Amino acid sequence: MTDDPDTAVLTTIRARERALPFDPGTRATDAHLVFIGKAETAWTQRGDCPKNMGQARERKVPAQVLVDKEYREGLLGLEAHSHVIILTWLHRSARDLIVQQPRHADEPRGTFALRSPVRPNPIGLHVARLVSVDMAEGRLVLQGLDVLDGTPVIDIKPYFASSDRPDLEG
Question: Using an 8 Å Cβ cutoff, are 130 and 58 in contact?
Answer without folding.
Answer: no
